[in-house]
Structure formats: C-alpha cells, structure tokens
Amino acid sequence: MKSLITISVIWLLASVPLYAQQVWPGDVTNNGIVNQVDVMYWAYAHDAVGSPRNNPDHSWTGHVLPDNLWAEEFPNGLNFAYADCNGNGIIDSVDLDIIKEHYWFERDSVNIEDIPVGIPGVDPPLTLLVNSPYTSPNEEEEIFISLGDEDITIDSLFGISFTLHFNPADIKDLGGDGGFSLEILENTWFTGDDGNQSGGFSYVNRSSGVISVILYREVFNSIGWGNLAKLEYIIEDFVVFSHIDFELDSAVYYNFNLKRFPLVPKGITLEVVDAIDPSHPEGDNEEDTPGTIKDAGVTIYPNPASGRTLIESKNKGSNKLKLIQVLSLGGNPIEEIEFIEPVSKYLLDANNYAPGFYVVRVETEQGISSKPLVVVNIDSGIGQ
To answer: N or C: more exposed end of the chain, with fewer CB within 10 A?
Structure first.
C-alpha cells in the first residue's frame, strides 16, 4: 500500500508542469497561458495567506517563488503561492485584476488540456435565455445564463466556464467592459440566501467577438438547476441583418476538487425588429426611389453603391450637413469630411472603399444620423 501511495504522489507531481519553480503573475496553473482555468484556481485559493515573495511584482515575467512555500496546495499538488499574482502573501481581488490584465498572455511553452465535449441527454445543458426572442436597435437587453434542467441537476458544483461568440457590429462598445456587464443573480440555488461569496469574471475581446465567462461559488451543500447570472448589453443603433446570434462553446463545470466535466452549450438567436436588410432597401413612401435607405434626416442614394452615392438632407433649408464620417462596422474611422459651411448634399465616392458594409454618420444642423452604406464594387481605394 505504501508503494502504491508513493507511485501516486510521483505521478501527481509529474503531471504539474513547473517552469524552473517560477511564478508568472496570472498563470495560476503554471501551464504557460493565462485563461479561464486560472480564474477558477484563483477562486479556489481566494483569501489564503502565505509567505510573500522576496521581490513582490506582477510584471509578465518569471518571479522566484518565496523561500517558504505556502502550507496549502491545489488538488493537483500545485502550491497556492502560484495564485499570489502580486507576491504580497495574500490572495485577494488584486490578484484577480492581474489575471485580467494578463488574460491570454502566453509563454514560449504552453500546456493546455483538451476541453471535453458534452453529450446531449447525458451531460448538463448550459443554456442562454432571454425574456423575448425579439429586440430592436438601441435596446437594452439581458441574456440569462442557466445551468442544468429538471432531469439533470448538479451537486458538488464549484463553478463553470464557457466562451460566448458575438458579432461586434451588433453590440455597442460602452468602454472598459467591451459592451457587456456580468451580474450574479441573488438568492438562487447557485448563490444561496446570503451569497456565500459567489462571484463572476468576464473578459471581452471585441476584435475577435468572444467573451470568456467564469462563475464560481463557495456553497458546498447546494443541489439544483436554473439561472445563475445574466449578461447585460445594448443593441447598436442599427443592425444590418435581421438576427443576432450568440453561440457558446468550451463549456465545462468544476467540482470542489477542480475536476472538469463537460456541459452541453445551447446558444440563442434574437430576431431584430426594424433591422436594415441591404438586399431590400426601402424609402419612406411610395414615391421614394428604389435603392434608397432613409431615416428622419438624411437620404443616401444609390445604396447599395458601386460608384458615387448622394448623401442629401431631406430638409435642405433648415437641416444642412455639417460633417460626414464613414466607419467600419466595428466602429473604426475610414474617412471624415467636414464642411466649412453646411451643405444640403454631397457626392461620396464609394470607389474609395472595399466591398462590404459601412456606417455613414452624418452630423446635421438638427442632430446626428447614422445609417449603413453597402458597397458592392470597387476599383481601388482605402479600407482594403
């Protein structure tokens, strides 16, 4: 029996990749990359106290472990000192901020475990839910995150992690949160009546259109299913197509030994009321010219455009154009035309843009108008 225990310990330690006994702040699992697993390990070690490093620092480089390792270890044998991202001897919210600062940072050598894939009807579902399948431009919306169902409940649950995919052109960028805010729901089977230090973490990469979401808790006796948290966001002022997709993958749950199990991810599609369909542009009345997209102040014709397109004020006398900006769907500036004196119309040369979808933002004497421009042909120009 003693030999068996010795062999097991050797195998366990061998399975933990150590890089010259160094801490890379944020890489709590010491596997060469900072990702959602590091957040889960941080949550496991939260509030622990141990020896500080000789030179506390959180720069992305290797730091020597403290002379005395901490008394506590993770279930895989890794010392808690790896979760002390700033090296001050306390694992707290500052360390979580450092994980976020270094999220997706990598070293030369990376060791990532395969994420298991859930089997419908066998593994618990992870489902996105909304109050209504319909939305409109500029609307505030909520997506509820639900785990399990009445047939598949989960016990010994420590937390979950998953990746959500979205189109950045559909969601307003509100600054530091990337357009989304994560909120843990109160008084649920996941949090318990008093919250029990349940928490959440999200990291948004708008350029890739992905969100990493991690939810964790310290409730040992809860068994159940249902809503855990919600994501809040605002639909862009216009949406070119008539639906918005949110897809999930890399969905797993963790037990209190930090062992991972697969979930079955179920995304959602929202139908957008009053979305603009570039293949069927419409005017304001029966007399409008086909191939024109209008709003309350400005007309763009023709649209889709393969050459020059006319941007014109609908009320030429009192609502002239002061500024025209052409933006990519992601909001990046492509061109800006500012008029010394306001004008009633302007010919925009669409040959200057690569084929695709753009946003034309027009500042007039009475306000601001934003609408899509569809370019279907190009001779040369910027934006390629």
So the answer is: N
Burial of 205 (0-12, 13-18, 19+ CB in 10 A): middle
Measured between alpha carbons, how far is 188 from 192 in angstroms, rounded to an integer? 6
Ranges of CATH 2.60.40.3080 domains, the chain = 293-375
* Cβ within 8 Å of residue 137, ≥6 positions away: 235, 236, 237, 238, 239, 272, 274, 275
**Domain formed by 293-375, architecture:** Sandwich (2.60)
Helices marked H in 46-155:
93-101
Helix (H) or strand (E) holding 10: helix 2-14
Q: How far is CA 25 from CA 8, 56, 78, 171, 223, in A?
A: 29, 10, 15, 32, 34
Report the candidate in 150, 24, 17, 158 with the shortest Cα–Cα distance to residue 76.
Answer: 17
CATH number for region 125-272: 2.60.40.680
The one-letter amino acid at 339: F
As to burial, measured by CB atoms within 10 angstroms (0-12 exposed, 13-18 middle, 19+ buried), residue 197 is: middle
Q: Which residues contact 145 (CB under 8 A, 6 or more apart)?
A: 126, 127, 128, 129, 213, 215, 227, 228, 229, 230, 231
Task: Convert the pLDDT of each residue in 361-373 to its tens digit.
Answer: 898 888 888 888 8
DSSP state, residue 306: S
Distance CA(306)–CA(321), nearest Å, equals 23
- Is pLDDT larger for residue 179 or for residue 289? 179
**Per the confidence metrics, is the pTM higher than 0.85?**
no
Sequence-ordered list of residues with C-beta below 8 angstroms from that of 15, at least 6 positions apart, any chain: 76, 77
Report the C-alpha gap between 262 and 249 in whole angstroms.
10
**Comparing C-alpha atoms, which of 24, 86, 20, 28 is closest to residue 58?**
86
State pLDDT tens for residues 140-197: 899 999 999 989 988 889 999 999 999 998 999 877 678 999 999 988 888 866 556 6
Closest CA to 107 of 161, 209, 53, 26: 26
Q: Is 88 helix (H, G, I), strand (E, B) or coil?
A: coil
Which residue spans of the chain are classified as CATH 2.60.40.680?
125-272
Helix axes 36-45, 93-101, angle to 10 degrees: 170
